[in-house]
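Lab meeting, item 3. Inverse folding demo.
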């Protein structure tokens, strides 16, 4: 089945170029030119990936990303014309999985999309075993690998794909400390151009979602100067 991508940018030439290139690779592409249109399409359709510009009419990319995260864990890659690191970090804070800075090479965009989709496919294939193997229970946490769901003490929590992957790695390796570099290479891949701050942002956001007190984490803990581990 062809992968389906939503491309969102108010610059029609950019959208046209990305759409043509992705369709050449056999993907289905929907396009939106403002934030509200993007949110409407994301609500009504299932996508394997969303490319989302930051500067948009009606709703900006951060608002769109935040709204989508209320109901979906679809991978979101932010497109930003600014080189300021705070914009990139802010995008991650709102639930984005990755970012690409304009001007970009379309080959870079395609490579990033394929890498994320490939990791998602590998993760899905690895979970197609017995039902028992798909359920990971450790302490208060229950992770359903097939459906990518997390419940804690009976309450379900909505995680992004990267948050789920990170938590799954930690939970299945209890008390093993992973450095930021380990997590970056394992979760984002060796070809990811970002830095280790990406890991810190995702850990902080994960804690805000699942920890009773994020300042004193019960589940995702810090080994100061080394990295992160699960209880």
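The presenter then showed the designed sequence:
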């Amino acid at each position: 089945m062809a992968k389906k991508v939503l491309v969102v940018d108010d610059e029609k030439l950019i959208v046209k170029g990305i759409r043509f290139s992705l369709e050449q690779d056999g993907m289905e592409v929907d396009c939106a030119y403002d934030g509200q249109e993007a949110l409407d399409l994301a609500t009504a359709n299932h996508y394997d990936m969303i490319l989302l510009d930051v500067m948009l009419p009606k709703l900006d990319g951060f608002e769109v990303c935040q709204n989508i995260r209320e109901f979906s864990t679809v991978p979101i890659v932010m497109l930003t014309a600014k080189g300021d690191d705070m914009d990139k970090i802010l995008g991650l804070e709102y639930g984005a999985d990755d970012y690409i800075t304009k001007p970009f090479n379309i080959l870079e965009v395609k490579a990033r999309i394929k890498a994320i989709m490939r990791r998602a496919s590998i993760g899905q294939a690895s979970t197609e075993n017995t039902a028992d193997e798909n359920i990971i229970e450790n302490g208060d946490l229950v992770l359903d690998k097939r459906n990518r769901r997390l419940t804690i003490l009976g309450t379900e929590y909505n995680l992004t794909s990267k948050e789920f992957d990170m938590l799954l790695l930690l939970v299945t390796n209890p008390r093993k400390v992973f450095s930021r570099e380990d997590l970056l290479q394992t979760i984002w891949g060796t070809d990811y151009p970002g830095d280790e701050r990406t890991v810190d942002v995702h850990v902080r956001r994960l804690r805000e979602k699942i920890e009773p007190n994020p300042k004193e984490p019960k589940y995702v803990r810090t080994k100061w100067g080394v990295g992160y581990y699960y209880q």
